[in-house]
């Protein structure tokens, strides 16, 4: 009752799962991922064992093929399952049980595998692979593009309700909160994929701006300015504030002051919040003054 894609970017090593369904909160059950190991999608009459124990199996050194075969052997109803697994090297294993509700099937592409059930037809899973292979850029955007292609090809026969995306790094950093690059869910919405696309775009800008701000705090002002994403017409207050502080610290006072005026115009509390960064010793008071105009 769902369609999903799992994929790896060979350039960055990022691995991810993206999924959409008419079911409530598809992100709570279908996508599984662990940095340095791999990603898994378990759906149809989904069995969480394939995700939880599947990652454990990869952690123990099994290949994705061995892991999927072992889990199917202990599943009382493997014919009801649809599972895809991909490891950190891009190897994939996929299975569609004979009792999955038609149209049901899967397709393997270059660095990806798409799987779907109770959809309009085979074009749904074929379109995901084609769209992913034809796309380029940041993996989360490519995964959403694949879901959009599936929707254009007919999507879930019952309609749409929820969507999710989970992307992890190729290796473990020892800081798990940094190993999940994107972890977003739309649990109940009339346009879950449209909402997910907007969240992915916001997520990228948000985290890139935070990364730039942290570089500025460490005195790496050139790197901080280089890391800032392009300006946007619409951003939340936090992103505008962090961007303004980076620009001011990097000597671009005019741009910083313009953002500061925009910031205070949108939220009168912003000036007080900005001053707290100086009071905490995170940025120089002169930097805050440049943002706020003195």
Care to give the gist of this entry?
This protein is of the alpha+beta class and 294 residues long. Helix content is 44%, strand content 21%. α3 (123-134) packs antiparallel against α4 (139-152), α6 runs parallel beside α8 and α8 packs antiparallel against α9.
Outline the structure in words.
This protein has 294 residues and is α+β, with helices and mostly antiparallel strands. The chain folds into 2 domains: 188 residues, 4-Layer Sandwich (Glutamine Phosphoribosylpyrophosphate, subunit 1, domain 1), CATH 3.60.20.10; 81 residues, no CATH class. Helix content is 44%, strand content 21%. It contains 11 helices and 10 strands. A 6-stranded antiparallel β-sheet has the order 7-8-1-2-9-10. Helix 6 runs antiparallel to helix 7 and helix 8 crosses helix 11. The longest helix is centred in the C-terminal third of the chain and has 26 residues. The chain is elongated and about 70 Å long. The model has no long low-confidence stretch (mean pLDDT 95).
